[in-house]
Design goal:
alpha/beta, ABC transporter transmembrane region fold, Rossmann fold, 18 helices, 11% strand, binds adenosine-5'-diphosphate, binds magnesium ion
Length: 581
Amino acid sequence: MKIKNIKNEYSLYFRLLKYTNKNLILFIICTIISGIAVFLIFSSIGILLSNIVGAINGETTQDYSLSLMYILVIFIFAILSSFSDIGFVYVEQKLQILLRNKMLKSYFKMDENISHKYSNTEVLNRVTEDVNQSTFLISYYMSGFIFQPILSGLFSVILLYMVDWRIAVLCLICTLGNFIFSRLTIKWVRKIRSNIVNGKSQTSNFMQECIEGAIEMRTFKLYKTFNNSLYNKLENISYNTKKFAFIEGLRRQISNISNDCLTIIILLSLGALLAYYKIIDFSNIMLSIPLSDQIGQMIMAVANFTSIVKQKSPHLERVFEIIDLPQELDNKINSNLQNNIKDTSQIIFDNVSFSYEEKEVLKQVSFNIKKGEKIAFVGESGSGKSTIIKILLGLYNNNYGNINVFGLEKENCSIEKWRSNFSYLPQDISLFNLTVAENISLGNGNLEDIRTVGKMANIDEFISNKPKGYNLKLQDGNVEFSGGQLQRIALARCLFKKSPIILMDEPTSALDKESEQIIKETIEQLPQDITIIVVTHRLNLTKNFDRLYVLEKGSIIESGNHNELLEKNGKYAYLWNIQDN
Ligand code: ADP
Ligand code: MG
C-alpha cells in the first residue's frame, strides 16, 4: 500500500513537470546557473584557505592571474544567477496560467451529472490556492532550497573526489549524521504541521459559513455563540504554530551546530591527525571545510525534496481532479448523420425517460411544440420540470427516447450546434461586472441592436434614463436596479442571442407580484416567431400561454390551455385554486 502511494506522489509530480512543456529546460538551465554560482563562492573560500595553508608550509607559489580569472567567473555567475531568478518566476507564472486555464476549461465542459459534487467555493479554492501550492514544486524556492543545494553539493563532492577521494568520503560520513538526525525528528514535526493544516482548513470553512450567513449571524446574534468556538479554533492553530516554530527552530539549530561545528571539528581534528602521519595533505582538508557545508546542504535537500513532494501532492491531486473531470458528451463524430425526422417546425420529445443515477425522474414524456408557441411546464416541486429544460439544453445526454428540435436530432448533433438553438433564463441569473450593454451583448454588439432587444425586454426606458445609459456598469450587489429589472436585462441578453427558442426556469420565482406582472407582459409581447418554453410553479405567469403541460412525478398528466385545464378540474385546477393569483 505504501509503495503504491509513493509511486503515486511522484507520478503526480512528473505530470506537473510535463505541463511546463519547454519551460522545463529554462528551469533546469536557471537551476544549473544558480547551483554553479553557489558552488563557485564556497569553493573559492576553500581554495583560498587551502592556498594559505600551502603558503604557510611554503608549498605553493601564488598564481595571481588564475585567482583573478576565478573572481571574474564568480562575478559572471553571480550576475547570471540573479537573472535566473526572473527565469524561475517566469516558469512558475506560465505554469499557473496554464493549469488555471485547463481547470476552468474542464470545469465549464464537465458532465452535469457530477456538477453537484463541487461547490463554487471548492472550485475557486482549487483554482487559486491549490494551483499556488502545486506550482511551488517548480518555483524559485524549490530551486533555491532543493535543486541548487543538490547541484552545488554534487560539484563539491566531485571537486573533493578529484583532489583526494578519501576527504570526499570523510565529508560524506560527517554530514550523514545530520541527515539521520533530521530523518528521525521529521515525523514529529510533520504531525504538528498536519494538525495546523487541518485546523486552518476547518476554521476557514467555518468562517466562510459565517460570512455567507451574515444576516442570520446578526439577526440571531450568532456572533456571540460562534465567537467562542472561533476563538478556540484560532487559539488552537496559534498554539500549534508556536509549537511548530519552537520544535522546527530547535531542530534547525541542532542541525546547524552539527553541520557547521561538529563536521568542521571532526574534519579538522581527523585531518590534522592524518596529515601528521602524512596520509593526506592538510591544505586539502582546508579546501573541504566550506565544501562540506555544501555537501551537508545537499543531503538535507534530498531529504526535504521527498517531504515537500509528499506535502504538496494532495494539492496536485485536487488540481488534476478538476482537469480530469468527466466531460460532457459531444456527438461531433456523428454530426454528418442524416436526420430521420424532416419536420423543421417542431420540437419533439418522443417517449423520453431520464434517471439521475438510480432515480427515474422523467417517465416516457412525449410532446410536440410548434415554432413560435408559448409553452409552460407546471407542476409541484420535484416533478421534473427543470430536468426537461436541462435535457433540452444538452446538459444531460444520457436520456432514453428521441428528441428533435427543428429537424435536428439531439443524438446526432454536436453540442455547439444543438445549443445554438437555445437561450436560457434561470431564476438566479448571472450578470457580470460589465456595463449593461456588455452584459446584454456578451462581447461585441452595436448600441442600436442592443437597444432593439432592450425595448423588447422593456428595459430601454429606465436604462436610457440613467446618466450613463447602457454604459452603466453593473457593480457587485447591483443596487442600481430591482430584481425584476435585472431579470429583464438578462432577458434582453437571451433575445440578443437571436436563438429561435428561449428556455426559462422559474424566471419570476424570486420576484414580487408586481415585477412578475411586468415580466409576464414582456414575455407575452415578444415577437411571434420566438418559441418560449417556461418552467414555473407561478401559474399566473403562464396563464395566457398557448399550452400548458402538467407534470407529476415525471409524467405529463394533463395538457391544454389555462381555460381547458380549469374545465378539466384536475391537478392544474387544484394548483390554480390553492394559489393566491
Ligand atoms: P422541478 O424542477 O420540477 O422541481 P427537478 O427537475 O429539478 O424538479 O427534479 C426532479 C427530481 O430529480 C427531484 O426529485 C430532484 O430531487 C431530482 N434531482 C434533480 N437534480 C438532481 C441531481 N443532480 N441528482 C440527483 N437527483 C436530482
Ligand atoms: Mg425546478
